[in-house]
Amino acid sequence: MADQELQVSEKKEVAPAEGELTHEGIYFTPAVDIYESPTEVVLLADMPGVGPGQVDIDLKNDTLSLIGRVGGKPEEGSSLLAEYRMGNYFRNFRISDVVDREKITASMKDGVLRLVLPKAEKAKPRKIAISSE
Amino acid sequence: MPWWITGRDPAWGEFERLRREMDNLFSTFSRDLSPSSLWRESKLFPLLNVTEKDEAYTVTAEIPGMKSEDLEIKIEGDTMTIRGERKPLELKSDESYHRRERATGVFQRSLTLPGNVDSENVRANYKDGVLRITLNKRKPPKSAQIAVTTE
């Protein structure tokens, strides 16, 4: 496992029908890992180029939306090689009633968003603030 | 169909001209050793973008979730190698995956640098999951005027 070679996975652009995006620019679907422990659900999303202040997390009804806005400007100068595109990130998740919506926390580090969704019984919509590291 | 197509002329002459042009084009490519011809596209991780400015080249790569000590950049001769490992999460026995999309594993990618890179003057920086390597160009020697003497 340790020596498994990392494969390139092309960034997938979000289909226009998937979300109502009011901002211009390209949106990609971030790759995510989700794992569950007896007390919480943890979601990790790869959003390279997005800094701590550039993530919006919205919870409406049962839908959790992640939007990451890419911070850096494209490099200046003439392009000699362009293998990947820069862009924003967008993805929706459905949250079950198991999650305590008041206690969701988020942090952003090295281009990876970490959302911790503690388990509980309550179910109230609210906006989640991002803590920066 | 006009009669002259079977008559080898002038359509045949046009073919010949195109063929000669193609040959010229390919030999131009193989002779081209300009800096821009050194950056080759590949499907190896990490994907790279390279830009050139007057004084430097910039190589960027998206490698989220790394520790900078797990990234290694080496320059040997005219070859730069980017190497590292994206380690998998270590889950406890009572934790289980619902979804696993983020790729893990080791990676290595080598690039041939243009001759005008000053390999002593390379900077790398890792921020928000993006690796950015600045390769400064060697300063061209100062121009000198050579006087021609007559005898």
Compile the SSE list and pairings.
The complex is a heterodimer of chains A (133) and B (151).
Chain A (H helix, E strand, L loop, with lengths): L11 E2 L13 E3 L2 E5 L3 E7 L8 E6 L2 E6 L9 E5 L5 E7 L10 E5 L2 E7 L12 E2 L1
Chain B lengths: L10 H21 L16 E5 L3 E7 L8 E6 L2 E8 L9 E5 L4 E8 L4 E11 L2 E8 L14
Description of the structure:
The complex is a heterodimer of chains A (133) and B (151). Chain A has strands spanning 12-13, 27-29, 32-36, 40-46, 55-60, 63-68, 78-82, 88-94, 105-109, 112-118, 131-132. Chain A is mainly beta. In chain A, the strands form two sheets. Chain A has a five-stranded mixed β-sheet, with no helix packed on it. In chain A, strands 3-4-10-9-11 form a five-stranded mixed β-sheet, with no helix packed on it. In chain A, a hairpin with a 2-residue loop joins strand 9 and strand 10 (112-118). By secondary structure, chain B is mainly beta. Chain B has one helix at residues 11-31; strands spanning 48-52, 56-62, 71-76, 79-86, 96-100, 105-112, 117-127, 130-137. In chain B, the strands form two sheets. Chain B has a four-stranded antiparallel β-sheet, with no helix packed on it. Chain B is flat and about 90 Å long. Residues 1-8 of chain B have low confidence and may be disordered.
